[in-house]
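Researcher: Please predict.
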Amino acid sequence: MPDARYDIAFELYPYSKVPDQDAQPKRHPVVVVGGGPIGMALALDLGRKGTPVLVLDDHEGVGQGSRAICFAKRTLDIADRLGAGKAMVDKGVVWNLGKVFHGRDKVFEFNLQPEAGHKNPAFINLQQPYFEKFIVDEIRRAQADSAPIEIRGRNAVTGLTCAEDHVRLDVDTPDGPYQIEAEWLVACDGARSPVRDMMGLSFDGRVFKDNFLIADVKMTAEFPTERWFWFEPPFENSGQSALLHKQPDDIWRIDFQLGWDTDRHAELEPGKIRARVDAMLGEEADYQLEWTSIYTFQCRRMQDFRHGRVVFAGDAAHQVSPFGARGANSGIQDADNLAWKLDLVVRGLAPHALLDSYSEERIHGADENILNSTRSTDFLTPKSEISKIFRNAVLELAREHAFARPMVNSGRLSVPCVYDGLSLNGPDDLAGPELTRVGAPCADAPLAQGYLLDRLVGRFCLLAINAEAPDLDQIDGIPFDVISLTTAEDDPTGALTDRYLGGTAAAIYLIRPDQHVAARWSHVTVEDIQAALGRAIGQKG
């Protein structure tokens, strides 16, 4: 039986007995295992589309500890579409600027969003418990609007049996065990995924021999709201790396690289932690230790993210180092990719094979993240004296020469995944900007009324700019939106022209429910649209 005695930040879904526990196994269209940010975002998206979804979580809310704190613009754009983005940005610490130091000297600084014309910032820092709470708050509002979402706290999945058309789950609760069935099961149960273990599936990759100390401290400080990263920091005897950035509620995240051969128990002694923090901030600094932890990390993923009726998402499917904020941000992109596909499959509007494209596209994203995380770690911790000489030479060059700065790798920060060359992509018959090529997520742009991404609300959409668009509201039962814009009336800043037209006069974009470009043309027929839509839902000719 799940243990209710754990540190909890927000009790959001306390245990309550349900009729399923006293009945023959009831079959649910979609069951999500795991109530973290990925599972809850997926449930909210499915429920808002009208697909019934049940979330099983072995706790009753959000645990303590800030864990993930950096949420990227793409994640905020997705959260905006789900209704939770504004609360996150309002609570979060907004930042665009980062600085890199080597010893006492600043090497350079970078701006992650130098151009204007976006509703959301490049990044916010927000403790993961708040992120999860805002998603659950939005689920409650959706439930009040009759969205078919159910959450069951202290319901721990202890076993499963896979059949051709369903999965049977053994669930343990404070009132004893019961069983349910799922037409589709989504495992969002973390890096130590019990579902993955129950199915005997591999989780392959590389283990990094290093230790990092996280110290979240509460203090009032004059440091700017920027990401500061040190190579060989002057305040650290280990001579490796350190990181400082601000969170809400006057909490600051400090990250110290300790190395592999370290006594983890000794390093977690409050006196030892305070000595490190004092060396960084100065002995006169007034602060409280709020949360501390030592972690190691791995870069791993499953071979496939779909296994019959079971689909894996987030850390259950792939794991990366925390450098670059690629874990939770990538997981939210998993949920964004999966929700619309699973919705169409459950409704019988797309073949089951569409879910294979989820695995294809998100493995593409996971491999990109693992590659970047591995390179970051190797740059942070050179594995030989020659590697260290090269690393320090790059840092020296970067002080004066812009060409060397892209080679400095203190954690390549999360960027949206582009599905270049993958199976759902339709034609790219437009000599348009690379930014919004087929496979890319749509770039935001300010319009005369609001922002472009606010118009893309989770359905297939035809975006016509300075072009005639066919009058469509559905194709083969799939709902369709048509948005017609002109640069003369709708593009007050020129951003829409720059990001969607480039040097062309007119364009028509087919946009998926997850805001990725499925196809684009300079002119188009209904037959062209039907063919591209068929490809985008896995019905390739």
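Model: Confidence is low (pLDDT under 50) at residues 1-6.
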